[in-house]
Amino acid sequence: MQRLKKNLPTILLFVVFMIGVGLIAYPSFSDWWNSFHQSRAVASYMEAVTSMDTSQYDHILKSADKYNAELAKTGVVWTMDEEQEKKYLKELNVNESGIMGYIDIPKINITLPIYHGTDEAVLQIAIGHLMGTSLPVGGRSTHCVVSGHRGLPSARLFTDIDKLVEGDTFTMTVLNRTVTYEVDQVRIVEPTDLSDLQIEKGKDYCTLVTCTPYGINTHRLLVRGHRVENAQGEAMVIADAMQIESIYIAPFIAVPILLLLILGLLIATSGKAKKNRAGKQ
């Protein structure tokens, strides 16, 4: 008991130290954990896609194109009835996971799965497709809208899309179709202002939506891109480069540093204890 009282300050210091380390490390670790699962979700989707044959691709994409063509006639449907929602959820549901495809934004180094709908359960972990807007397969007279949170301590998501400017590009990949969009408009609007999300005849748009200002969220940031094609009239595809994301490297750097700090603290307290015992002898 006497020994415990003597070591109590050291124990309290260690506990406080560990709590501090935990608070500092939580956002980075949580972001890494969510990004890991997002990457696994994309990889699982790609694995499911590669197991399919071209006839299945054609069937699913033709159905999505038909859905978009019908939507171009009626306009964006902001409020769906039960039958419309049921029909929507069947589209692009490749492996029954709810993932429609994925978005890649090279400038801010993110690749995120896109799920049906914008329920909070989706937006906490990934990007949601806004129901009632065009499906993310491209095509004339389409306007796909996807939404994501920013500023979450647990996930990066759309936190950095305010860094995108006109001329930057991003891609939407569904099955074996990848469409490239070039940012041509960045606007901040009221949450009820939907005028910039409408379908325009002959245009192929995709808009990324998030809340702004950061942490206040009274308005919406809209980053719109138009489809770009090469000289042959085909959608440009940005080649994927093999790289190790910094988010995967971070834990391997942080863990040894943390262990060294703990070891240093233990050595320091052990040395102090030895000196105290030597002084009493």
Q: Topology, pairings included?
A:
Blueprint: H1 2-50, H2 54-74, H3 82-90, E1 99-105, E2 110-116, H4 120-123, E3 127-129, E4 142-147, E5 169-174, E6 177-189, E7 204-212, E8 219-227, H5 246-280
Parallel strand pairs: 2-3, 4-7
Antiparallel strand pairs: 1-2, 1-5, 3-4, 5-6, 6-8, 7-8
Helix pairs in contact: 1-5
Summarize the structure.
By secondary structure, the protein is an alpha+beta fold. It is built from 5 helices and 8 strands; from the N terminus they run H-H-H-E-E-H-E-E-E-E-E-E-H.
Q: How would you portray this structure in words?
A:
The protein is of the alpha+beta class. The protein has one domain (24-238): Sortase, Chain: A, CATH 2.40.260. Helices cover 42% and strands 21% of the residues. It has five helices and eight strands, in the order H-H-H-E-E-H-E-E-E-E-E-E-H. It has helices spanning 2-50, 54-74, 82-90, 120-123, 246-280, and strands spanning 99-105, 110-116, 127-129, 142-147, 169-174, 177-189, 204-212, 219-227. An eight-stranded mixed beta barrel has the order 1-2-3-4-7-8-6-5. A hairpin with a 4-residue loop joins strand 1 (99-105) and strand 2 (110-116). Helix 1 packs antiparallel against helix 5. It is elongated.
Low-confidence stretches: 20-30, 231-250
Helix content: 40-55%
CATH superfamily: Sortase
Tally of separate helices:
5
CATH architecture: Beta Barrel
**Compute the gyration radius: what is it?**
25 Å
Shape: elongated
Rounded mean pLDDT is 81
Largest sheet: 8 strands, mixed, barrel
| Coarse structural class | alpha+beta
Cα end-to-end separation:
20 Å
Q: Proportion of β residues? A: 15-25%
- Say how many strands there are: 8
Number of domains: 1
Order of helices and strands: HHHEEHEEEEEEH
For the record, the CATH class is: Mainly Beta
